[in-house]
Amino acid sequence: MRLPEKESSFMSTAQQPLHPSLDQIASCVSGYDPDALPVASAQQVIRSFIRPVDSVEKLAIRAALDRVLAADIISPINVPAHDNSAMDGYAIRSADLDDKDVSLQVVGTAYAGRAFSGDVGPGQCLRIMTGAIMPPACDTVVPQEFTRDGNAQSVTIPAGVVRAGDNRRFAGEDLAAGSIALAKGKILRPADLGLLASLGIAEVPVQRRLRVAFFSTGDELRSIGEALDEGCVYDSNRYTLYGMLRRLGCDIVDMGVVRDEPQALEEAFRSAAENADAIITSGGVSVGAADYTRHMMAKLGDVCFWKIGMRPGRPMAFGHISSGGRGAYLFGLPGNPVAVMVTFYFFAREALLHMMGASPAPLPLMSVVSSSAIRKKPGRTEYQRAILSTAADGSRSVSITGAQGSGILRSMSEANCMVVLHHEQGQVAAGDMVDVILFEGLL
Fold this sequence. Notes:
Elements: H1 22-27, E1 37-38, H2 39-49, E2 56-60, E3 73-74, E4 84-85, E5 89-92, E6 102-110, E7 124-128, E8 140-143, E9 154-157, E10 168-169, E11 180-182, H3 190-198, E12 203-207, E13 211-217, E14 221-222, E15 233-234, H4 237-248, E16 251-258, H5 262-275, E17 278-282, H6 293-300, E18 301-311, E19 315-323, E20 326-333, H7 337-355, E21 366-370, E22 381-390, E23 396-400, H8 409-414, E24 417-421, E25 433-438
Parallel strand pairs: 1-18, 6-7, 13-16, 13-17, 14-15, 17-20, 18-22, 21-23
Antiparallel strand pairs: 2-12, 3-11, 4-10, 5-7, 5-8, 6-9, 18-19, 19-20, 21-25, 22-23, 22-24, 24-25
Helix pairs in contact: 2-7, 4-7, 5-6
């Protein structure tokens, strides 16, 4: 199986020599044991081994949504450009305020985009609209609704309705010229596009999209549309992987189902390594008589095989494989559908974001009440599919979806969060607080 050849400009950091080696990095992890590796230790090894892809392109800001900034964006101007009014009202000199009502002469009106060219002297004020430039002599704005008896000639300012400096925006208050408006590594969101436009910036440098090849292994797997022979199942993993990779903004290549046969596997791995930045496989990483995947991974690169202290998703492979002078990072995920999703989110996701040049924050945890007891032994991390509910009084509680077998994909569809039971954590009683990760924004 061959992937379509990339254009000649394709250049992956993954193909460059990696220093130090995966074994060297792993040896620095305290108590490293590939047959009993805690989740945090596996994440540490992956984080230390991954290098970002070094390739940049310039895009118009409308095309840059969800892309990763490749350089800091420096503000070329002050935002706002001038001191201006935050309210519709009257610009005054705070020296004219008193402990009793004050009547001031109105000398004109300032509009947004049209500066007032006159002067404002003692005992005078200026009718001003939101966003209009403050006259140099004025330092305070009285909102219109706080005034009395206003007309074209005068207005009364009641005592105590404002303090000196109220409702005045300063030049550069939002962004000062020369300061960082958006930092390298930020994934651009709609508000960021608006910020760029407010600075007059039409194009931005972004990291090129990450190219990820993925395939499933197993003679029992069938693609949608094929006859489902006895003992066979439809391959769901490629569809969940497709969705998860699309959510990350990757360019993806679905290589289908690869037979448990050495020649087919070697061809698939070599093609993927030569044409992608990362490879994700599902199945074939546990020890089994018909699993040739482990052997082929080891043959082609620097790969570790782990038994991770977690549920679901115990077996996993990670490393780097090469072919034809090019290479790619490799994530060998388990075969069970839920285990694929869990290992992707807690291992591959952060690594892929790092390869994109992003600066991923840890997935946010929310502490809520467990509505029922949850069985758990210390010594492994468990991720339980669950439903977070909000009561009429605003209180929140979480309940697991039922049976937590790693083949029950329906439970991932029904759940809206995942309960995280940490490595050293034991039994959970009804009413205990537990950590949850919301699916919204993740799935």
